[in-house]
Amino acid sequence: MALLAWNVRGLGNKDTVRALKNICFKYKNDIVFLSETKQKKRYLEKIRMKMKMDNAFYVEPEGIAGGLALWWNQGTNLSVLHFDKNFIDTTISINGEEEWFGTFIYAPPYEEEKQDFWKRLGTLRDDINSKWCIMGNTNIVASPNEKYGGAPFDYNNAKWYHEFLERAYLMEIQSKGGTYTWSNHRSEEAEICEKLDRVLSSPEWNFLFPRAIAIIDVAIASDHAPIVLLTNGVMKKIKKDFKFQSKWILEEECSHLVEEEWIHT
């Protein structure tokens, strides 16, 4: 099972839609969660159909800010339990497998709202032994090694997040790919990179999916990188885009091969 969570920072841009289509094609996602869509349901439905996703649930943006979209395919049994502007809480099972809780989040970026958000999230599960997985944009730098550039790491900014993890008995799933999931896309001394997007899970969920892994993909058309959760590990072959390397032109055989293939096509 493959689940995608991505802060797209607006889905009105053709480049963003193209990047989304490519990542959906690459991982064959069963569930897609998009935050900061900044678009109404009518527009998002057109994109969903292009992505060939079967079902949808939306949280409308407030003006031109925010907005959540959750898409899933046939064969995935998903029910929405709770939602607000910052999260969609669900139960999930696929092909009749055991059910678990999946919560898709876009945590508030403002310090004055973070305490309330993490406290609200902590009230979703009464049973600490729940099979629970959370993924999305936490808007939290959790440790010094998750930050490059800018102001020094401040533990107080992550206080409510760490207290939530401790109360809910959750841990972060190992990730592969890039170190950071957000960048201000500036150069040299002005560059800032942070890990803000992640996947959290309970021990019971980990027991259900012991080979689960999170992949941080390349950030394209957004300042956030997409994060993909593969519940059974990297088992299926991931499709990669073909990219022509300019250095191949220097190879003596290159022009002959291109000419030969052109003649036979």
Automatic annotation (TrEMBL):
Domain of life: Eukaryota
InterPro entries the record matches: Endo/exonu/phosph_ase_sf (IPR036691), Endo/exonuclease/phosphatase (IPR005135)
Boundaries of every Endonuclease/exonuclease/phosphatase domain copy: 5-224
Name of the protein in its database record: Endonuclease/exonuclease/phosphatase domain-containing protein
